[in-house]
Specification:
By secondary structure, the protein is α/β, with parallel strands linked by helices. It has 2 domains: 188 residues, Spore Coat Polysaccharide Biosynthesis Protein SpsA, Chain A; 90 residues, no CATH class. The chain contains 12 helices and 8 strands. α8 crosses α9 and α10 packs across α12. The longest helix has 40 residues. About 2% of the residues have low confidence.
């Protein structure tokens, strides 16, 4: 996959004054031959984690704009040019990102989970729009601002882009989203990988919430959709168990929701409508697992606080 990613980037930067940097985040340097073939600058960062890797790329580059994507992505032909031109045209912008779409050759499972990771919303976003969070696999930043705020937070193993974007947002910098800027992001291959991904997301989303509670609430990017959807599901279950509402009304509400999702998918792409039922199931699973991860973070925080109190009492 990484070879395809590099080929797409090489094609995208053709004619653009730029340099390609490949950060090898493995324990041992193994990617150098691949970097050489792609005429990329090779950087080895032995400390594992996307934040360490991206900070290493930032140190290795002298460019005015820093564009980031992941090794499981294929960027569109005009990806680099679109981000650079967008940042040049809007001097007030600090970051510009776009769509992380599901590749066309993905499996049924991958297309189903991708349906509610951004694909179904593409036609309803047109033109440049203000944003408070951008996908880390499809984003460009102004180098001077990244350096000024200290780069990526290496204490986060996940939700690195959320932490950074909220920090930028809270510092008064402007972020924007352009749906015309597209990368194709490979989705998880199995249910186990999918659940593990969102369990980790939920856990580190709590870490972000713990660090910036007021900003998270203002941006509404972490509590929703997982926390909100879980609250709705809990409310529906409570009403169902209390028998205050006839079951046929609840069934009608569920069917109406599914009809709306199907209609939205059909308007986007008729083929996508076939993924809606399974996609809805995956969305509910995502919300539940992400909520579990979030609450795991809450429990870990509470345990840490208890340990600190016990140590203080022992020292006294």
């Amino acid at each position: 996959m990484i070879a395809r990613c590099l080929c797409s980037i090489v094609d995208s930067i053709d004619g653009v004054n730029s340099e390609l940097i490949l950060v090898d985040n493995n324990d041992a340097p193994v990617m150098e031959p691949l970097a050489t073939r792609s005429r990329a600058k090779y950087v080895h960062e032995s400390q594992a984690g996307i934040a360490f890797a991206r900070n290493a790329a930032m140190r290795a580059s002298k460019a005015e704009f820093l564009l980031f994507t992941d090794d499981d992505c294929v960027v569109s032909h005009d990806w680099a040019r679109s981000i650079v031109q967008g940042l040049l045209a809007e001097p007030q912008l600090t970051a510009l990102g776009g769509v992380a779409a599901t590749p066309l050759d993905s499996t049924f499972f991958q297309k189903s989970i991708g349906l509610f990771l951004g694909d179904v919303r593409e036609p309803y976003r047109t033109g440049l729009a203000a944003a408070s969070r951008l996908d880390s696999c499809n984003v460009g930043y102004r180098r001077n601002v990244l350096e000024k705020i200290g780069g990526f937070d290496t204490t986060f193993a996940r939700s690195v882009e959320i932490e950074l974007d909220i920090r930028l947002y809270g510092s008064g910098y402007k972020l924007a989203f352009d749906p015309a800027i597209v990368v194709y992001h490979e989705r998880r291959h199995s249910l186990e990988e999918f659940l593990r991904q969102f369990l980790n997301w939920g856990y580190y989303n709590f870490r972000v919430f713990q660090k910036y509670p007021s900003l998270v609430i203002r941006t509404r990017k972490i509590i929703a959709p997982s926390m909100g959807l879980c609250a709705v599901c809990a409310g529906v279950l409570t009403v169902l168990l209390s028998s205050q509402v006839p079951p046929f009304i609840l069934a009608l509400l569920v069917l109406t929701g599914l009809a709306w999702l199907t209609a939205t998918a059909v308007l986007t792409n008729r083929e996508k409508a076939t993924y809606v039922p399974f996609g809805v199931l995956m969305l509910l699973l995502r919300a539940g697992v992400e909520a579990v991860g979030f609450y795991k973070g809450v429990l870990d925080c509470a345990k840490s606080a208890m340990v600190v109190r016990v140590r203080r009492r022992s020292s006294i």
